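Hi V.,

You were right to ask for the full record rather than a summary. Here it is.
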Amino acid sequence: MQHKTVGVLGGMGPESTAYFFQRLIHLTPAHCDQDHIPVVIYNNPRIPDRTDAILHQGASPVPELLRSISILEQAGADFICIPCNTVHYFIEEMREASSIPILDLIHLVAQRVRERLPQAKAVGLLATEGTIRTGLYQRVFSDGGVEVVTPEPAQFPELSRAIKALKDGRKESAATQALAEGVISRGAEAVVLGCTEFSLVADALSLPVPLFDSVEILAEEAVRLALEPAQAAD
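Predicted structure:
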């Protein structure tokens, strides 16, 4: 069977991109090399910081994002995954410029939470300040009347430090654990890891509520689409 080719627009950050590829491999039901799905990764670390662009008038990431999409198109990707939550603030601009589908990570995560926890009224979110302040998750969850519980604004520096430590290669889960416990104490019935850096320490977390890892959810959907060539990527 000929599988679809997965395009990965990476570099935000590089290690979470590598982890996403690892999850693609492990989630594919393969018994030999030939069973695996084809994957094209463009790891572009030159994409400007998304939160800085959104909140502080920093350099726009859009030109580099569109250039990266073009490279993936030319390389033969059938659809594109972007293992970065904050960059989905720019998804409409990216989709308008792309000739192939781009998966919406934010909607995929919200859909998974609704499927598993249809009665949930409050979901915790650990994400960048850019993702939180722009309401990327709040908008998709509000349709179902679900409250998104985030760290308090006073904790945003702590949140940013935890993400930076992971980008620096320090796999310390204590800060992530504490942030997750904080949103649970304020009523969250589940926790969404809405920054792909947090996915790097997901296995080290011990929580009394369900955990939804955005990298894992995106990888599962990418594998599903790649293994079903007759279906169009949404």
